[in-house]
Structure formats: C-alpha cells, structure tokens
Amino acid sequence: MRNMVDLHLHSTFSDGVRTPAELVAMAAELGLRAIALADHDTVDGIDEAIAAGTSLGVEVLPAMEFSVAFGSYRDVHLLGYLLNHRDPQLLAMLKDFRDKREARGDAIIGRINEKLTLEGKATITSAEAAALAGGALGRPHIAQVLMARGYVRDMQDAFVRYLLPCDVPKRYFPVDEALATIKRLGGVAVLAHPTTITNEREPLLRVIEELAEMGLDGLEVFNNVCSEQDSAYLRNFAEKRGMVWTGGSDYHGIEEGICMGTGRGSMAVPYSCVVDLKRARNRG
C-alpha cells in the first residue's frame, strides 16, 4: 500500500473505537503513507495522531467532519482538511457543540433505560459510556455498554433494538457556517460520501453545484457508499469542474467488512490526493 492514503478515519474522540495513536499504528503496519483523522465535530484527537505519526513515519492531516444541514437535507457531512485545529474560536464553538451532543447522549440513554426497565433489565449509566469515549459521547459507545452487559449480540443488534428506536435528533451546523469556518481556518472543504444525500444524480449534482458556489472545494469520490460507477462519475465531474477529489474508508472499527485503507476491499486512494489538497489550500 505504498503511496496509498486513507483520508477519512474516526477515533474514540468521536464515534470510533480506537485511539488516534492506535489508528496511526494500524496505518503504519499497513504501509499507508498518509491518513486524515476526521472525527465528527471535534479536533481533540489530532495532536495525539500527529505525534504518533511523527514517531511512526505516517503523515497525519488535521481534519474534521462537520455534521451540517442544507435546505431540506439533514446530516450532510462536510470534511474540512488541513484546517487550523488549534484556533481558539473553533475550540470554543466545538465545546458548545459537544456540550449539546453530550446532552443528546444522556437523553438517548434515558430513553434506553425506560425500555430496559420495561424489559425487566438493569439500567445503564452515562458514566459507563463516557468511560469508553475519548471525547464526545457517541452512540457506538452506548452500544458497547449494551454489548458488555450482554443485552445485545453485537453493534448492529444494539442499533436495531435500542439506539434507533430510542434516538434523539442531532444538532447540525448550518452549511454556510461550516463552509465559512473551514475557509477561515485555511482549510479545504470536501463533501463526504455524496450519494448519502441522494442516489439520484440530477438532484445530487444540483446540490453539489450549489455547495460549490458557497465554497465547496471537492468531493469524496471513493468511499463505502458509492458504487464503482458512482465513484467514476463523481471523479469525472470533479475533474471537469476543477474540484479536488479524495477518498477514505470512513473507518470506525465497528463496521463489519470495512478495513482501513481499502474500505470494503477494493479502495485505493493515491497520495496525489494529499498533494491536491495542499495545492487547494494554498490557492485559497
């Protein structure tokens, strides 16, 4: 996997199950040249990842995945690459966001406990889930508690039986605010797994065009949602419009069949994507 990269990884600081240092060690073992730690709505794990990367010879790109709302679309994901992750204004904004997210985690646990009580099972606590989270409490951390208690077989079972029925709506960044923040921090804005917005190409292209007018720089064309045909189409679309394109496994450590570096087995993202991201940052 020499000269290959994975530009979409999650750690315990959001909803992954491995620490930033563990992710870097895995990348080094796989022979990846570079990775991007792109936790959801937090940058708290980046310095740990960079330090580990320096030690192990893996280039680590600072990144973050913003959960945004755009028109009628909710939970659109924007990747901000090469941004200034130590910016005080950013850290204050994310602290407020994290506080609200942790309140959401507590509310989900409250609903799950109501269900557990009806089932005659002992309740769980926020502290148990928080102990598994390096940063913001996420639903996979709650799922791990349910697994440890023996209430569910695996992560999927936890989501089907408890986390989805007991969900509480997330808070989202307005898309213009997220794009402006990425630009202010000197970063490059890339739309993550575009086909999760819609599988219909014409509406998706309209969304991309609108976002490009607002400052979107690129598309994540290689991911675990796009088909090979979709990836080829989106890459061609990006290149024709002078946008950067990237790829990543979106590895959390909990999805069956998804591996760092290769995704579901066939993904191969070249280091040239990192070069293009750096050029786009310098142009900005």
Along the chain, the helix and strand elements come as EHEHEEHHHHEHEHEHEEH
Give the N-terminus to C-terminus distance in angstroms.
Answer: 30 Å
The mean pLDDT is 93
* Number of separate structural domains: 2
Overall shape: it is globular
Output the CATH class name of the largest domain: Alpha Beta
Structural class determined from secondary elements:
alpha/beta
Low-confidence stretches: none
* Number of beta strands: 9
Description of the molecule:
The protein has 284 residues and is of the alpha/beta class. It has 2 domains: 4-93 and 171-283, Alpha-Beta Barrel (TIM Barrel); 107-163, no CATH class. Helix content is 44%, strand content 17%. It is built from 10 helices and 9 strands. Strands 1, 2, 3, 4, 5, 6, 7, 8 and 9 form a 9-stranded mixed β-sheet that branches. It is globular and about 60 Å long. It starts with a strand and ends with a helix. GO terms for molecular function: 5'-3' DNA exonuclease activity; 5'-3' RNA exonuclease activity. InterPro entries: PHP_dom, PHP_domain, Pol/His_phosphatase_N, Pol/histidinol_Pase-like. This is PHP domain protein.
Kindly list the characteristics that best describe this protein.
nine-stranded mixed β-sheet, 284 residues, single chain, alpha/beta, 2 domains, TIM Barrel, 10 helices
Short description:
GO terms for molecular function: 5'-3' DNA exonuclease activity; 5'-3' RNA exonuclease activity. With 284 residues, the protein is an alpha/beta fold.
